[in-house]
Amino acid sequence: MEFKVLDAKTIRELIGIEDVIEAVENIFKDYGHGDVRMPSKIYLDVSGGDFRAMPASVPGLAGIKWVNVHPGNSALGLPVVMAMILINDPKTGRPLGLLDGTWITQARTGAAAAVATKHLARPDSETVGMIGCGGQSATMLKAIGSVMKIEKLYLADKDHDRAAGLAKKFENIDIQIVDTALAAAADVVCTLTPSRTPVVMADWIRPGTHINAMGADAAGKEELDPEILKDARVFVDDWAQASHSGEINVPLKNGVIQGVAGSLCDLLVGKVKGRMTIDEVTVFDSTGLAIQDMAVARMVWEKAQKQNAGVTINLEP
Ligand SMILES: NC(=O)c1ccc[n+]([C@@H]2O[C@H](COP(=O)([O-])OP(=O)(O)OC[C@H]3O[C@@H](n4cnc5c(N)ncnc54)[C@H](O)[C@@H]3O)[C@@H](O)[C@H]2O)c1
């Protein structure tokens, strides 16, 4: 039984960020139509961080991502988030392959922010504020840069070196390293920190802003002043995950908010309306969905088959 192993270099030769955006937007639509299977992710807490098991099936492929979040890893020169994706044939259960999932995670997270930006940000948006310039940030900016023209980019991080390191990767954009309040005054604001207390205050946000709240992906995490959520039109990626571990989890528990406008997946298939006025603040609360990983893995797998890429091993004795 042949089984393919695909490393990050091979995966990056097979697909680019625009392919990932297309895969993520399409799978969000499939989710809106009810064409996927995805239980909520399972958390395993360990000293130093946690692991998450993320199973899903999408048309033509099933599998699971095994991913960690270890906030102290930067000091060790390791990514905070690393992943592997195991894929199977859904009809027979046959194991098909193992994919490096670290870049796929970064790319599909950035792609989700890009899809939300495309559908929720004001069309005249031209400035982006990135708050948290770590492992996920570069692919997120690349993805957002492919759905809007970024005239000015504001980078904020409590570690100035991280912001400076990110700036070096985008030499063709007008970039300023600023404090968080200034980055939060952009047209499109991305929060990408592991914070457990709000880092963005309500009075820093201008009318008409779109916020991609990406960092809160475990119970107790939050990045936004709950006052922002009270007045904004909020879209989750998945209600079960977001109410447990997304940006809304703490304000919901505390009774500051009672619900949201809907999910981005439902918005994409016309079940719920997006931005209603030019002045309202929109928020995308992303927890990260296993279907994003599986949709990208499916694209990689199909291309790898055609191009005979990756290392094939035989699982039989
Ligand atoms: N929504 C999703 O799909 C998804 C996917 C992957 C990761 N995440 C989450 O996104 C967050 C970031 O992940 P990463 O891999 O980029 O982590 P990272 O540790 O590499 O980067 C986080 C950055 O945030 C900065 N930071 C921390 N607190 C800050 C604060 N109060 N103000 C400004 N900057 C601050 C850190 O200095 C660091 O540079 C994590 O919470 C992670 O769990 C979400």
Give a summary of the structure in a few sentences:
The chain has helices spanning 8-14, 17-33, 102-120, 137-145, 160-168, 180-183, 226-231, 239-245, 249-253, 264-268, 290-307, and strands at residues 2-6, 42-46, 49-58, 61-69, 81-88, 95-100, 127-131, 152-156, 175-177, 188-191, 210-213, 233-236, 262-263, 282-285, 311-314. With 317 residues, it is an alpha/beta fold. It folds into 2 domains: 2-104 and 290-314, 2-Layer Sandwich (ornithine cyclodeaminase, domain 1); 119-285, Rossmann fold.
What would you say this structure looks like, in words?
With 317 residues, this protein is an alpha/beta fold. The protein folds into two domains: 2-104 and 290-314, ornithine cyclodeaminase, domain 1 (2-Layer Sandwich); 119-285, NAD(P)-binding Rossmann-like Domain (Rossmann fold), CATH 3.40.50.720. It has eleven helices and 15 strands. It has helices at 8-14, 17-33, 102-120, 137-145, 160-168, 180-183, 226-231, 239-245, 249-253, 264-268, 290-307, and strands spanning 2-6, 42-46, 49-58, 61-69, 81-88, 95-100, 127-131, 152-156, 175-177, 188-191, 210-213, 233-236, 262-263, 282-285, 311-314. The strands form two sheets. The chain has an eight-stranded parallel beta sheet. Strand 2 and strand 3 form a beta hairpin. The model has no long low-confidence stretch (mean pLDDT 97). It binds nicotinamide-adenine-dinucleotide.
